[in-house]
Amino acid sequence: MLETKRLYLDYAKESDIEDIMKLENHKDNRDFVWKGTYEEHKKEIESKDFLLYVIKEKDTVETAGFALIHLDYKSERFELRRFVISRKGLGYGKEVINALFKLTFEELNMNRFWLDVYPDNHVGIKLYESAGMHRDGILRQNYKSERGYLDQVIYSMLKSEYYQMAETENNIVKEY
């Protein structure tokens, strides 16, 4: 389990799959995340190569979203495959991304955190850029969906960048 100031990220259980699928299919999310089947989510929960977190508010214990991560231990890569926050505009996304950075680099000792995002997901892009992620490039017309062929924008952060950013933030705090 991970914890932020206002949220818990707990390992998903089979009983959470229906809520996850509702979040994937919600009108505010369905154009921006791939939708998994019940069986696919069940396999993700059972696999050592995936982490599927349900994000809950501490105060209300209401589901605030989910995050699906693929771990490539050989290449030390942490891929954020799907990320949905149900209550947007509250800063929950930034809290979760920062917790996932900490997990990636400090606990799992991975070298690279990365994700892809569709170019019309302006909320996601704003979040990833504000979190200090590097825009690596665009995979043009890489995914065929109900909406047609979609580009995927790749964002990443390396372990060295994470620690450099953390050091800079600590120095800023120390100066005041």
Enumerate how many helices there are, as a single number. Answer: 5
Level-1 CATH class name: Alpha Beta
> Looking across the biggest beta sheet, what order are the strands in?
1-2-3-4-5-6-8-7
Task: Assign a percent range to the helix content.
Answer: 25-40%
CATH superfamily: Gcn5-related N-acetyltransferase (GNAT)
Can you count the beta strands? 8
Question: What features would you describe in this structure?
Answer:
The protein is of the alpha+beta class. The chain has one domain (2-175): Aminopeptidase (3-Layer(aba) Sandwich), CATH 3.40.630.30. Helix content is 34%, strand content 36%. The protein has helices spanning 17-25, 38-46, 92-107, 122-130, 159-175; strands spanning 2-3, 7-11, 50-57, 63-72, 77-85, 112-117, 134-145, 148-158. Strand 7 (134-145) and strand 8 (148-158) form a beta hairpin.
Any key phrases for this structure?
Aminopeptidase, alpha+beta, 176 residues, eight-stranded mixed sheet, 5 helices, single chain
Concise overview:
This protein is an alpha+beta fold.
Write the topology of this structure.
Elements: E1 2-3, E2 7-11, H1 17-25, H2 38-46, E3 50-57, E4 63-72, E5 77-85, H3 92-107, E6 112-117, H4 122-130, E7 134-145, E8 148-158, H5 159-175
Parallel strand pairs: 5-6
Antiparallel strand pairs: 1-2, 2-3, 3-4, 4-5, 6-8, 7-8
